[in-house]
Structure formats: C-alpha cells, structure tokens
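quick one, 99 residues, struct below
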Amino acid sequence: MQNMVIAEFTAAPGKLDELVGFLAAALPDTRKYDGCISLDVHVDRASDTIVMIEDWDSPEQYDRYLQWRMETGLVDQVGGLLKGGVEGMAIRKLEQLDI
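---
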C-alpha cells in the first residue's frame, strides 16, 4: 500500500447494525471513486467500532474524495450514527516509507 488511510467509526449505543448497513450502501461509490485502489472493512464488536483500511493512488485523491463526501452530506449523515457525532470518526492518512 502506497497511501493508506485508516478510518475508524465508533457507533453510538445500539447503532452498530445501522452503521454497517449505512456503510454497505455507501462504500460501492467509494470503491469506484477515482484513485481508490482498495477498501477493506473490519469490525471490533467489543468497542462497536468499524475500521476501514483503504489504499489510494495519492493523498490528494483521497482528499478530493473526502471533500466530495462532505459536499454531498454523507459525513453529516453518518455522524448521526456515531458516538459523539462526527467526533466519533477518526481518519489517519499514512504514507509508506521505503526503509
């Protein structure tokens, strides 16, 4: 992976299944978005957290994708399913080091 993104979504109490359904409906568009190489989804049921591990062609393409998601209102919509609202989402962008 050249440009990894790790996105974590902690579900509000009792909302994990709804969050999974929401993401299942939204992620096909993410996988088709220009620059998305791969996207894998995992769940930590002990903490009701969804972890997405993504690979993008470049950090700029991911930034354009995230801006599109904000403009279309998806980020605000998912916030209603998260513990603490949008603050229940954490995104880390990592670049591979050749060492």
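The chain has a mean pLDDT of 94.
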